[in-house]
Amino acid sequence: MEEKKESHAIAREEKRKGGLKTMPFIFANEVAEKLAVVGFSTNMLSYLTQQLHMPLAKAANTLTNFNGTASLTPLLGAFLADSYIGRFWTITGASIFYQIGMTILTLSASIRLFRPPPCTPNGPDCKEALPWQLAILYTSLLVNALGAGGYRPCIVAFGAEQFDENDPKEKTKTWSFFNWYYFCMGVSMLLAVTAVVYVQDNVGWGWGLGIPTIAMAVSVAAFVLGYPMYRQLEPSGSPFTRLVQVVVAAIKKRNIPMVSDPKHLYENDEMDEKISIYGKLVHTNQLSCFDRAAIITESDNYSAPNPWRLSTVHRVEELKSVIRMGPIWAAGILVITASAQQGTFYLQQARTMDRHLSPHSTFQIPPGSMTVFTYLSMVLAISFYDRLLVPFARRFTGLDRGLTFLQRMGIGFGITTLATMTAAIVEARRKHVAAQAGLLDSPSVTVPMSVFWLVPQYALHGIVEVFTSIGHLEFMYDQAPESMRSTSTALFWMSISAGSYVSTMLVSLVHKYSAGPNGSNWLPNNLNRGKLENFYWLITLLQGLNLMYYLVCAKYYTYKPLEIRKRDDEPKNSV
Asked: Which UniProt keywords apply (predicted)?
């Protein structure tokens, strides 16, 4: 009896935690973290080409490889969070890694010894950074990638779990959280690509990277300060082990006939309670080959089963959910390939164009600050989506969130195709103007064409973030098994990793196979002599094919069947 009272007391204490009061601490952490990360990554191409004198293609690949690695390491962070140490401590430890990486990068930019001697850009006496100087750069990027591995998969899931899914009012706030999380992220990115990039280009890289480093320290302090108020779910063991156990059990029983009625499959609520706090998954007819893992045989111990021979229906359905998510997850890869060009070739286009605010203005927009139009359109589109589109769509769909995850993502896929098509048309126009001005062999001379021609393609990518990226993140969080939400968020980042690597592969292949006998190719340092527009058309074609693939996957996707766990005063219900 005493143990039961103590259990209820702990439950009441946990109920008082979480909610809206924790959001300032989580959002403050996110704003400071994004200011740090975006503050150095947005303009990194300029640092690599102008300070370390890397060739354009090598610098672009270095940047996309870093982005790819930083989006791959979240699998490790998610494993630690879901299996052993929980999300709070994973985020805290990852933030410290970020701090170390940013400090190394700041020191390398501040101390002259760590960079090659200054020279005229593309001049004959320019020397690329020495191997040991590049090693310091790569070390700082690797440490930052490890920090991203712990932070990225956990912060969104940690914020969303501050709302009780069994409470209808709080569950509605969960979906608003995703929108406002991206809103805060967009605001911090706006600050990074304006103020921080301006400091980097006009004051110096030491201060330009030092400011984000200080911001990173603030983010750690802000997050830890809210510790007493957070609702924290205990790690429930390795989700990967459970998935493998289901596969092994199904293989061992592959020759056993299927049961005629799914009700005869093994269920054990007590066994699954720790990994399904809010609700358990119920049986589906898809991927029925794995149902054999839940068939009870004479050799199975019903009360204390060997998980490598007998799994519950819930655990079998966990595996099915992950497999069903795969095709939708994969569709997000090429969207990232398209958006990756903002930090590489879009930036290089901007560098060649007239960046004055007006014909009589002396101020020039830093090339890296052009992404301000991406983040500005994202922030405005989020407000429009949350305040206008959702209430309007709710009248027709009856859904509290307005559109389904799949509908939201599908709209974004279509807009991505339009964004890359626009980029191709604008680049063709830029080259035409350069040819008319006789600047084909003068890459250092500004093309008499306003940089504001690039605004539509940047803005469209911002709108894509609102539909595809947020929708994709919501989809991964909602459709993943409850005990795998950090892992599912890591898979979202893994799609970003794959998209970055696909961008690297495309650049490398185009660079190789478009080479002419005179050494020219589509993507030379001198864009005026290249065929960047053809590269954009290639990406547009891939986006169109990807959209068709997604529509097929979405049509046949089955949402996970969840039975909400019964409270003392509520009946069970399924969603």
From this structure: Membrane, Transmembrane, Transmembrane helix
One domain for residues 424 and 534: yes
Last residue of a domain, one of 288, 321, 354: 321
Asked if residue 572 belongs to a domain, the reply is no
H/E stretch holding 281 reads: strand 279-281
- 553 & 525 share domain: yes
Q: Are residues 312 and 212 in the same domain?
A: no
**pLDDT one-digit tens code per residue, 417-431:** 999 999 999 999 999
Enclosing domain of residue 346: 18-235+332-564
Domains held by the chain: number: 2
Mean pLDDT of the region 50-69: 77
Measure the CA–CA gap between 343 and 367, rounded to whole angstroms.
10
**1, two tokens:** 């009896």
Q: Which residues of 374-385 are buried (b: 16+ CB within 10 A; e: fewer)?
A: bbbbbbbbbeeb
In the numeric block, the tokens 């019903």 are attached to: 302
455 and 517 in one domain? Answer: yes
Coil, strand, or helix at residue 280?
A: strand
- Cα dihedral angle (424, 185, 487, 280), rounded to 10 degrees? -110
Q: Which residues lie closer than 8 Å to 337 by C-beta, 6 or more apart?
A: 499, 500, 502, 503, 506, 539, 542
Residues in the chain: 575
Distance between CA atoms of residues 135 and 563, nearest Å: 52
Residue 44 has pLDDT above 90, yes or no: no
Residue 64 CB contacts under 8 Å (≥ 6 apart), including other chains? 340, 343, 344, 500, 501, 503, 504, 507
Statement to judge: residues 39 and 72 lie in one domain: yes
- Beta strand pairing call for 447-450 and 353-354: parallel
* Residue 326 belongs to a domain: no
**pLDDT digit string, tens, across residues 139-193:** 888 888 888 888 877 887 788 778 776 666 666 666 677 777 778 877 887 888 7
The answer on 492 and 415 residing in a single domain is yes
Per-residue tokens: 303:
């009360």
Q: Which residue in 163, 22, 147 sits closest to 92, CA to CA?
A: 147
467 Cβ contact partners less than 8 Å away, ≥ 6 residues apart: 385, 408, 409, 411, 412, 415
Domain endpoint, select from 299, 321, 343: 321
Contact yes or no for 434/468 (Cβ under 8 A) = no
Torsion angle (degrees, nearest 10) of CA 177, 183, 184, 187: 180
Whether residue 8 is predicted with pLDDT greater than 60 in this model: the reply is: no
**Looking at the domain assignment, is residue 77 inside a domain?**
yes
Q: What is the DSSP string of 513-543?
A: HT--TTS--SS-S-GGGS-HHHHHHHHHHHH
Q: Is residue 71 part of a domain?
A: yes
- Asked if 250 and 230 sit in the same domain, the reply is no
- Give the residue carrying structure tokens 């190394």: 104
Question: CA 538, CA 541: separation in Å to the nearest integer?
Answer: 5
User: Residue 11 — pLDDT band, cuts 50, 70, 90?
Assistant: very low
- Whole-number Å distance between alpha carbons of 216 and 241: 34
Are 497 and 509 within 8 A, CB to CB? no
pTM: 0.76
For residue 421, give the amino acid letter.
M
